[in-house]
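User: What would this chain look like folded?
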Amino acid sequence: MIGEVERHHGAALARLVRHPEAPSIEIRAHGEQRSAYVLGERIALYVKYSTSRLTPWRFAFRVEHQQEVAELRAQFEHVFIVLVCGFEGIVCLSAEEYQRVLDDDPRRGEWIKARRGPRQKYSVSGSDDREAFKIADNEYPMKVFDAISV
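Assistant: Here's the prediction, encoded as structure tokens.
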């Protein structure tokens, strides 16, 4: 049986490798939490998913999730947080955008919320009540490809 993790992470990885502009790059799993992937030597993806069918999609970032993201940021030049929103789309946050919605205090659990209306960009906000900002569905995987080409 195919589990939820494989289904949702598979959607994120398939969009990455099947894109017409996808470069040839090695992808491998990373870490014990089963949420991180490494592309080449400089780029890491941290994938989370929501099984909710409808907007808004909420992604819990427990203390251990935030610590894993912090470790990735310390190890890799580029880190992207990839949020699979049910069967609707994918939000890709750069490490800087991730910091815009969550603070630097991984001692408590937090969340990121993505919402979108029909044919609109995602509005992304976090539990720290910082101002929401917009991200287009098609920014993933282009942000990652831009980091690869640098």
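The chain has a mean pLDDT of 92. If you want, I can go into more detail on any region.
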